[in-house]
């Protein structure tokens, strides 16, 4: 008996039509549902089949919602399967789109594409078919692109919700917030947040500025963090915390070090405008 992490894909043998693959992908997604994820029932798929390969698979996840406060960290139990045989296959072109998906109430436009995603069709002694996606490696790396776009107004609304909760805990009410993001190159941003706060009869403005950049090696740097207020009373509240805030906020994070083998980033960019857009290129796609 061999235990592997296999995804159930209906009865054997391997599907011979795109329609079969589409219906089985829909059924598979239903098994992956968990508290905190909604809208999986509305996911649409389109597939083509060529023998053991899938020349194209498109998954449209528009309308899916994710609330990570309710997501469980426990992975679904993997089926225990007595493997009879395997048939290698690949998805020559995989597309995952969501126009939009919603993450904690923030709508995001998502476009992900990958090429030559390798997997095995696995037939068990129970005459059921399973799919086992191969882990990427240096020999078989992930090659593709990802693009995530969030409307500036939606980003401001999300920041306002979080900041209002933090200030409320300190006895302040957030009455207004303006967030300005300006590009300082293809991978760098200048950030300025102007907030209006109130506490009893006290009203004041607070300004936070910072810079953020990410290089081709996927090293994220956040720095030049300042916090100030035009109101001397509020400035007095801020003073003791200014150095602590700067120490916490000014940091360098090597995001590439957190990627698994076979996943390398060849380019990344951030664009700020009516939308805030992050684009990432994985591997070295041809052309």
TrEMBL record:
Lineage: Bacteria, Bacillati, Actinomycetota, Actinomycetes, Micrococcales
Domain of life: Bacteria
The name this protein goes by in its record: Uncharacterized protein
